[in-house]
Write a structure and sequence with these properties.
By secondary structure, the chain is mainly α. The protein is built from 4 helices and no strands.
Length: 126
């Protein structure tokens, strides 16, 4: 239950930051992008879906799935102000797990710093 609370809060904070950084984005665009990055429903409907039996989305243990979700997160964050220029290039299709992890780490650092810069506190991460 706590994990679910943290995950939903993370999603809501992500949306709040996206609204601040990209005020012209429509709710439909935002919802479409979030559907691509976050596995499962985006509504606050805890326990409406069965708990997964394995890590999914960005937390996936499968290198191909992880690559897919890290790429989607990279695309989602790329229009934000201050996006690191070294992350503008997409990951190669056969990127190693270490390379995917390094990009994911840079994306996470960018997200956390952007959140702090705009809200004055760190985000809640699942």
């Amino acid at each position: 239950v706590l994990w679910d609370l943290y995950e939903h809060n993370f999603r809501f904070e992500f949306v709040a930051l996206a609204c601040v950084l990209m005020p012209d984005m429509t709710l439909d665009q935002e919802s479409e992008w979030l559907d691509c990055v976050f596995h499962g429903d985006l509504e606050l409907t805890m326990c409406a879906e069965p708990f997964p039996s394995e890590n999914q989305g960005l937390a996936s243990s499968d290198p191909k799935l992880k690559l897919e979700y890290v790429e989607k997160l990279q695309v989602l964050l790329s229009p934000w102000p201050g996006f690191p220029s070294d992350l503008m290039e997409p990951l190669p299709p056969l990127a190693s797990l270490a390379c995917v992890w390094a990009v994911e780490k840079k994306l996470a650092l960018f997200y956390v710093q952007s959140f702090f810069d705009n809200f004055g506190c760190p985000p809640i991460l699942p």
